[in-house]
Write a structure and sequence with these properties.
Structural class: alpha/beta
Largest sheet: 7 strands, mixed
Radius of gyration: 29 Å
CATH superfamily of the largest domain: Type I PLP-dependent aspartate aminotransferase-like (Major domain)
Strand order of the largest sheet: 4-12-11-10-9-5-8
CATH architecture of the largest domain: 3-Layer(aba) Sandwich
Strand content: 15-25%
Length: 476
């Protein structure tokens, strides 16, 4: 057993005696104020943790602790306050998305328009007519909210909103196909992010899956051969984040609906991304079906996300025939998947912006999708100018590609300009980690040994913060 020298032991004991009692510590002004905010028990616990930390530090340093009793008390006060702040600090934080992935699932998908944020805040701050009929003065239904705008924008007879698109698919299948067969192409039995698998959703809904065709080729005759007395509906699924190319075949939606309607069966399309149609200067969405085009082609129900190409909050939206929508609304599962007042507020506000073409650019997703390369280049050069005085940093504008993301428009590549960064003596991985550790964190990419920033996905107002974060990371 190794023991420390008497001199070291005496030095440790002397430093430990500089630590004040907890009662004395709680009497200091900052901690006394903290008691009013956090409560006596929480502040006492934080003070004890701080004291334990200082004791451990003094022992590890062989008695080299604070120079005086006052320094020890001030150190403990600061540490206790840090502990209190960390205890109540939220884990969900705002980040700057400089990846160029517009609908970034890991970063919360679509950022909301300012109007949607303001409206959700006003609704959240008080009471609302969520389920109250103001004209009748009696109980109403939450389903009426957003329906008028959805009908206007898509041409559907009716619409409903639930908490996400997976829930929309589940409740439709449960309401219309429980215990009966749903015909679906093998090429559409997809899995998307988070383990969402079409076969498993079908099983959970109580429907019986009837696969037709092959992975790469399914014909309308395959559907026709599978229709029988137990058939409830035909399901068509957007391929989401993958693409089958080469020797392929898939019947058009109009052809599929014509077959189904001949047998008096509905067609339900899980469209996924929810594109309503808008200006597409780069043609990246040319293969992305819109909700309106699907309904016009004869689909009886179309489900899509509110937080992808629509640019709103997380939500699942179903549009289509009123009789089928009413049947879904009456299903008991609707109570488990219904949307709350904040979702309705943000959805309605986003749809209101879609209703007038000029206002669509105020939806961040639409603005990012339609942003020109020259505008991105101008913003990139402006960022570099703000960093020119950092001698260790090399920054230049290079060509690159942004992507839609979120399972929308798979394979899309939007031309962009990137800011490529390199810091002398610092690896790209270390620089990326420094940016990620900042406040706010900056999420970037590494390409060809350099950190790259795509300003397509950086909000206009975040430019100064981004420049500050890069400066701190480069000079750290």
């Amino acid at each position: 057993m190794v023991s420390c020298s008497p001199r070291r032991r005496n030095r440790v004991m002397t430093s430990l005696r500089s630590i004040p009692s907890i009662d004395t510590l709680l009497g200091r002004p900052a901690l006394a104020r903290a008691i009013a905010t956090h409560g006596h028990e929480s502040v006492t616990g934080a003070a004890r943790q701080a004291a334990d930390a200082l004791r451990d530090e003094i022992r590890q340093l062989g008695g080299h602790g604070p120079g005086s009793d006052e320094e020890a008390a001030a150190w403990l006060e600061r540490r206790a306050l840090d502990i209190l702040r960390a205890r109540v600090a939220p884990s969900l934080r705002r980040v700057i998305n400089a990846t160029g992935v517009i609908i970034h699932t890991n970063l919360g998908r679509a950022p909301l328009a300012a109007e949607a944020i303001e409206r959700a805040g006003r609704i959240a701050g008080g009471y609302s007519n969520l389920e109250y009929d103001l004209e009748a003065g009696d109980r109403g239904h939450r389903h009426v909210h957003a329906e008028r705008l959805l009908r206007e924008l898509t041409g559907a007879e009716a619409a409903l909103v639930v908490n996400n698109n997976a829930a929309a698919t589940l409740v439709v299948l449960a309401a219309l196909a429980d215990g009966r067969e749903v015909i679906v192409s093998r090429g559409e039995l997809v899995e998307i992010g988070g383990g969402f698998r079409i076969p498993e959703v079908l099983a959970e809904s109580g429907a019986v899956m009837r696969e037709v065709g092959t992975t790469n080729r399914t014909r309308v005759t395959d559907y026709a051969a599978a229709i029988g007395e137990r058939t409830a509906l035909l399901l068509r699924v957007h391929p989401s984040n993958f693409r089958i190319e080469g020797f392929t075949e898939r019947p058009g939606l109009a052809e599929l609906t014509a077959l189904a309607h001949r047998f008096k069966l509905p067609v339900f399309e899980d469209l996924g991304s929810g594109w309503l149609g808008a200006e597409d200067p780069d043609g990246s969405l040319r293969d992305e079906p819109s909700v309106t085009s699907s309904l016009r082609a004869g689909a009886d129900l179309v489900a899509f996300s509110g937080d992808k190409l629509l640019g709103g909050p997380q939500a699942g939206i179903v549009t289509g025939r009123r009789d089928l929508i009413d049947q879904v609304r009456r299903h008991p599962l609707m109570r488990a998947v219904r949307a709350d007042k904040l979702t309705y507020a943000a959805v309605e506000s986003t749809l209101g912006l879609w209703a007038d073409a000029p206002s669509r650019l105020r939806i961040p997703v639409v603005r990012m999708l339609t942003m020109s390369v020259s505008e991105i280049e101008t913003r990139a050069k402006r960022l570099i100018e703000q960093l020119n005085d950092i001698r260790s940093l090399t920054a230049e504008v290079v060509d690159g590609a942004s992507t839609t993301g979120g399972g929308s428009a798979p394979g899309s590549a939007l031309p962009t300009k990137l800011v490529a960064l390199a810091v002398e003596g610092v690896s790209a991985a270390s620089l990326e980690a420094r940016l990620r550790a900042g406040d706010p964190p900056v999420i970037a990419r590494i390409r060809d040994g350099r950190v790259v920033l795509d300003l397509r996905t950086v909000a206009d107002g975040d430019g100064p913060e981004l420049a500050t974060s890069v400066r701190r990371a480069a000079q750290s």
